[in-house]
Amino acid sequence: MTHPSPAASLGVLGARLAALVGDLDSQHRREQDAYAQGYRDGHRTGWQIGYGHAHHEMAGHWARLAAHVRHLARTSPIDELERRRWDGRREDFANPRPTDRQSRRLAAALTRRRTA
User: Fold this and answer.
1) Fewer Cβ atoms within 10 A, N terminus or C terminus of the chain?
2) Rounded distance, CA 3 to CA 5, Å?
C-alpha cells in the first residue's frame, strides 16, 4: 500500500477545507435568510394580533353605542326632553322644591290649599 505524498495530502486537505469554508458562507446565508423570514413572520403575526385586539375593542364600543341608540329609540323623546328641561314634569315645575329657600313655608301653604 502506498501512501500519498505530503504535497498531495495537503492538496486534498486544502480542497476539503475550501469546501467547508464555502459551506460556512452558505450556512451563514441560510441562517440569515431564516432569521429574516422569522422576523417578517413575527412582525406580520404581531400586526394580525394587534388588528384582532382593535377589532374586538371596536366591536365592544359599537355594541355599547348600538344599545344606547336602541334605548333612545324606545323612549318617548318629548317626555325625556321635558324631564331634562323642567327637572321633572312640566306641570310640577312651579311647585316648591326641597332646595328652594322658602320650601317649608310654600310646601305648607300648598298642602293647606290642597286639603281645603
Assistant:
1) N
2) 6
